[in-house]
Amino acid sequence: MQERTFSQTHTFDAIVIGAGLGGLLSAAQLLQRGKRVAVLERLPHCGGRFTAKTFQGTQVSTGAVHMIPFGSSGVLARMLRHLQVPHRFFDADVFGSFYVRGKQIRSRGLLGVFKVFGPRQFFWFTRVGYLMFLRRLPAHERDLPFSAWLEQHIDVQRNPELRAFFERISRFALSLELDQVSTPEVIETTKNMFSYGAPGIVEGGCGALSGALERHILGHGADLCLRYDVMQILHEDGHVTGVRVCNKANGEETLLSAPLVVSDIGPRATNALLQNQRLTQAEVLKEYEAGRASSNINVAQAQREAIGLKVHILSDVSLIPHKGIMYCLDTERIAGIVQPTNCDPHLAPAGKHLLISHQVIQSNNIEEEKELALSDLRMLFGETFEKHCRVLTMSVYRGEWPVNRVMQGADVVPYTSVQGLYLVGDAVKPSGYLMVEGVAQSVNRFLDLLDGIEQEKADDPHGAPSIRCAGQTRPRSQRNVTPPPSRLNALRWLWEAPGNS
After folding, report:
1. C-alpha–C-alpha distance, residues 340 and 338, integer Å
2. Integer Cα distance of 440 and 295 in angstroms
3. Shared domain check, 361 and 332
4. According to a count of CB atoms within 10 Å of the terminal CB, is the N or C end of the chain lower?
5. What pLDDT digit, counting tens, does each position of 296-355 carry?
6. Which residue, 342, 382, 328, 337, is CA-closest to 105?
7. What's the pLDDT score for residue 472?
8. Residues 271 and 338 in one domain
9. CB-based contacts of 215: which residues, under 8 Å, 6+ apart?
10. For residue 313, what is the domain's CATH number?
11. Residues 137, 214: one domain?
């Protein structure tokens, strides 16, 4: 691709800041609507936390574990089909497996967790399922963190595996402890997980999908500008007017004009650019660590991020015998592990197996967190880990590059105080939509806002749009937002998970 350069002010219909998954999807949707779009990315590549780098012949992800939470039935898959972006997902062939009491137990469907819990805990498991899915949540329980809600309905001391079951799924899927996520959010997210179906692994890894999106937007006329720093978001009289950018290759600054700007860099960085400021990793980490050290300091923004640590492991032997997630109930740190080469062997060198573990960071001592991860891996796989496995990378996601810029259920609205400036990405994912499914659904919400405004302009060309800023009128319709399938789909999980797409 030839690098784009500007020598003077250029005008576009829309500018997208950030070429992560949310930015790429937004650009593709805007191009489909006939708009001239510029995409600005400060890195030399697209994808952000949803791509991969080849390291020792292995596709090492920059964030995601090559996994799509709702697989071939989900929001992201539906959007890709609508955009006609080539892709393939391999759906999980089991509900999951669970490392518990020193052994791995595979569960093809929900009823298979009987082997994990035994008769007594399985009874309470079905009781919790009834309370979550078949009963309306009482008003006095709606503000409870899920840990407190669970303690109200089961004896957590007598049901350790049952509590660990919810705890590890929350840590793996949301990068949160049970006391950090509300009960309604857990219920809504779990309902969507069952309604949409099995998670899936991307053929070629998440880097292949980001590459397909990059080729798609270039093929449809986008101006993709890599190695460009956005220095400032310009606005006048409450309306966005464009951005000031700097070409990192030569230091040249340029003004780009557009009545529509979509930001995929998170609300904090976006707000800084509105004030002609830029955040650094050091500043973000300082704010976060101050919040961990003191309960009195006002660091609500830092506390709302989801942070974690991922380990990429290359093994000579297969350690997980299925295409789903192994949840680790006996471990101190690692919440879950996937072996994506079960779906696509080309993610690792021939004859090798790629495993990726994920854990929530629970302290400021990153070196200790890494050692605890290694200790868990030795406990899980014993001598096999020492003889046949090699750690490729240990990656920390916090500060400017957290797992999620805003914790599940605490997301901000996609519109801002400046008309024409919108947010997409994991900070504005709607309730119940996790990880990259939430990113795709955030783009749907943005499109709904945009369609609503354009419809109002068509109905009254001389009137002012009613959707201006946070706290004002919401979109009148939900044309683009993808609803979950019928909850009857969840019955597929009772006995056996669906097969490959």
Report:
1. 6
2. 34
3. yes
4. N
5. 444 444 447 899 999 999 999 999 999 999 999 999 999 999 999 999 999 999 999 999
6. 328
7. 42
8. no
9. none
10. 3.90.660.50
11. no
Q: Which domain holds residue 135?
A: 103-197
Residues 353 and 317 in one domain: yes
Give CB contacts under 8 A, 24+ apart, made by 150-156.
Answer: 150/178, 153/127, 153/128, 154/124, 154/127, 154/128
pLDDT of res. 298? 43
Domain count, the chain: 3
How many C-beta neighbours within 10 Å does residue 226 have?
19
Mean pLDDT of 463-472: 48
d(CA 269, CA 278): 7
pLDDT at 271 over 90: yes
pLDDT at residue number 285 = 67
The phi, psi pair for 185, rounded to 5°, reads -70, -40
The single-letter code of the amino acid at 144 is: L
Domain end, chosen from 181, 197, 213, is at 197
Q: Does one domain contain both 182 and 257? A: no
The last residue of a domain, from among 134, 164, 197:
197
In the structure, what pLDDT confidence band is assigned to residue 210 with cuts at 50, 70 and 90?
A: very high
Are both 211 and 80 inside the same structural domain?
A: yes
The answer to whether residue 222 sits within a structural domain is yes
Token readout for 165 is: 């079951």
- 188 and 108 in a single domain? The answer is yes
Which helix or strand (DSSP H or E) is residue 253 part of? Answer: strand 253-257
Helix 435-459 and helix 75-83: axis angle, to 10°?
A: 50
Q: Phi and psi of 45, rounded to 5°? A: -150, 165
Give CA torsion, residues 72, 77, 83, 88, to 10 deg: -50
Domain harbouring 235, CATH code:
3.50.50.60
Query: Is 178 among the domain residues?
Result: yes
Residues 6+ apart with CB under 8 A from 112: 95, 106
Taking the C-alpha atoms of residue 38 and residue 221, their distance in angstroms, rounded to an integer, is: 9
Q: Which helix (H) or strand (E) holds 200?
A: strand 200-202
Examine the pLDDT at 205 and tell me if it is beyond 80. yes
Q: What is the pLDDT of residues 357-406, one digit of tens each?
A: 999 999 989 999 999 999 999 999 999 999 999 999 999 999 888 999 99
What's the whole-model pTM score? 0.92
Q: 331 lies in a domain?
A: yes
Chain segment 95-106, per-residue pLDDT in tens: 889 999 999 999
Q: Report the alpha-carbon angle 176-124-160, nearest 5.
A: 50
The verdict on residue 499 lying in a domain is no
Do both 193 and 210 map to the same domain?
Answer: no
399: left (phi over 0), alpha (psi -120 to 50) or beta: left
